Amino acid sequence: MNVATSNGDQTMTDSAVNALRVAVAVPVADAYDYAPPRSHAELPRGTVVQVPFGNRLVHGIVLGPGGGDIDPARLKPIAAVAPIIGLDPVFVDFIEHTARWNFARLGGVVKMVLSQPKALTPPPMQNLYSLPKIMPDGVKLTTARQRVLSLLEGGVGRIGIELARDAGVSAAVITGMQRQNLLHVDQVSADQPPPPPHLDIAGPKLTDDQIAGAEQFSAAIGKGYKAFLLDGVTGSGKTEVYFEAVIAAIKAGQQVLILLPEIALSAAWRQRFAARFGNVPVEWHSDIGEGRKRQAWRFALDGQAKVVVGARSALFLPFDNLGLIIVDEEHEHAFKQEEQVIYHARDMAVLRARCEACPIILATATPSLESWANAGKVSDGTKASGPPRYHHVVLANRVQGATMPTIEAIDMRKTPPERGRWLSPPLVKAIEDRLEKGEQSLLFLNRRGYAPLTLCGGCGHKVTCPNCDSWMVAHRLAGRLKCHHCGHETRPTNKCNACGQEDVMQACGPGVERLGEEVLQRFPDARFAVMSSDTVGSPKIAEAFIQSVVDGEVDIIIGTQMAAKGHHFPKLTLVGVVDADLGLAGGDLRAGERTFQMLSQVSGRAGRESIAGLAMLQTLEAENPVLQTIISGDRDRFLMHEAAARNAAGMPPFGQLAALILSSPDEQRLFAALKMLAASRPYYENVDIFGPAAAPLAFLRGRYRGRFLVRTHKSVNIQAVLAAWLGPVKLPAGVKLQVDIDPYNFL
């Protein structure tokens, strides 16, 4: 048992004091015993406290009674109790389950939950101005003062900053009026509650399939845990269907959490929400400031945030009464957190829905194989599979009379582009046709920058990152070479560092910037814009970009995967995939699935209204099964084929995987650690351990890397296997071990 011991005048000798178990917001594996403060007789599970940890004070969460077998004189006392509502014990259950399932450090999960320390103290106060009960006589009213008073005539108080802004006066005018008793002032919290969604705004007319789905979701509100897979083709109106469930949950007095894979760039989704509910939801993601995060955390805790939309970390907000969880684009790999606490937000959302006893909706046009299997569409062929875990709700048709796009393959072996160019003649002709008709085209290439590789034309030397085993990507717009793994940047040079020759460095392969160069040369009169994280890096920029496309100010969009997700461009009728083979190669377990999903999603941007759409896939492997199923539109056949291959190999979702990634700045210490783990590997039935082996990226961010891969039957408790193996091992200093349950990244 871990004990936080006391020293000096912190010692408490009252033997009647019981110990409390506290999980601290520090990435450590265990919780610790502390003595309760004398000022609080009881601290229930979920109480947020401040405790001494080492030579500092940190926040933590009370889990319950301590072990009771430690001398109270050795325990450090809890230093303070946070003046906030305690966390729901059910939420604390979820925190502990998350740590156990992901083989993560409990303190790391608590640190995510308590990520806003300022939210744990009372919010700042501000002045609320209103008209005084009795207006003083003989005070001169200037024009500016009259404007201030007229704004307050309705009897509703106004915050000082807003009052000065709306009246068009300076802050000095407001303070002067206050001194002369022309204004009454109250101190109120700076955290004003967010406006609630308006539930009486009429939405679009729903189809029969949409109505049937909405009725199923609404009927589940308040009835306990139930998981739905909302499986609708692109443009089928999935969002409008789950909005009906949002309305039902709010009417029942419950809160709603909506997870999006890239919330900071989902401007179109926010616009649709605002049109349906009259205002935007509370947001939680990396692009909002600390002040708004503090408010969002408090609003979730006290129940004032009726709807929260966020990225994966929003899953760890402390809701007061969570009644519905929605995971939009559930198949997206962006829901996998790869750093610090490693988890998959979709899977943990299902876990939280179970803990909260509320329904969850997983929405997608291209279901992940895991969700497809959980909906009972495939099984491992054993009787143990049981009934489906998810209820399958299908939207098979597009709304507003739109039809699915035609998808064609362009065999680049038969119709290659000219040397030094990347667009084939059939695709060029299709773009020209759209330009003549005043329609829009999207060129998709999931590769940022200008070129993925720069090499010497004389000796063949490749420009690589000094911190990683990866090429430096040329970004000509920024005038930099960048590593997309560690962020290292440098200026490009025409001199080869290996052989010393001048003017021999060559850019190899295309990125979206290079594609833009070709578009400018081929279609000089066309208006084009690049949509990637380099050019559209914030919600405001994304919103402006999308609006410009909707308004017809862009003829050709050149985009990375950012352009493939959820956008509705009414005039877009052509999608050209520049390199449909990108992503199919390599040993990634989900390479085929990821490529199928990405190409299906981006193809679905075409023809979403009355004009038929066309998607053209440039490929050197036109006979590839993945591409053939996309062209034929037979998604289910692809999923069945993929499921059969995974089942035969014992891979997820029919088996379990865990990756062990060891890293160290010292290569010899890494080898010693790998050898130590290899020597102590356990041997169990239905458990295979592969490795050790150097990672495909054997040097990353200045650290050498090695891997083990554990594969087990689904009946095996893989976390218990890992605990028994790793628990007794003490790794050499400087060696870091990460455990990834169900890995998505095999680098």
Provide an overview of this structure:
- This protein has 747 residues and is an alpha/beta fold.
- It folds into 6 domains: 8-114, PriA, 3(prime) DNA-binding domain (GIY-YIG endonuclease), CATH 3.40.1440; 125-189; 208-395, P-loop containing nucleotide triphosphate hydrolases (Rossmann fold, 3-Layer(aba) Sandwich); 400-447 and 511-653, Rossmann fold, CATH 3.40.50.300; 449-509, no CATH class; 655-741, Ribosomal protein S10 (Alpha-Beta Plaits, 2-Layer Sandwich).
- 28% of the residues lie in helices and 23% in strands.
- It is built from 19 helices and 32 strands.
- The strands form 8 sheets. A 7-stranded parallel beta sheet has the order 11-12-10-13-16-9-17, sandwiched between helices. Strands 18-28-27-19-26-25 form a 6-stranded parallel beta sheet, with helices on both faces. Strands 2-1-4-3-5 form a 5-stranded antiparallel beta sheet.
- Helix 1 (89-101) packs antiparallel against helix 10 and helix 6 (208-220) packs parallel to helix 7.
- The longest helix has 15 residues, at 635-649.
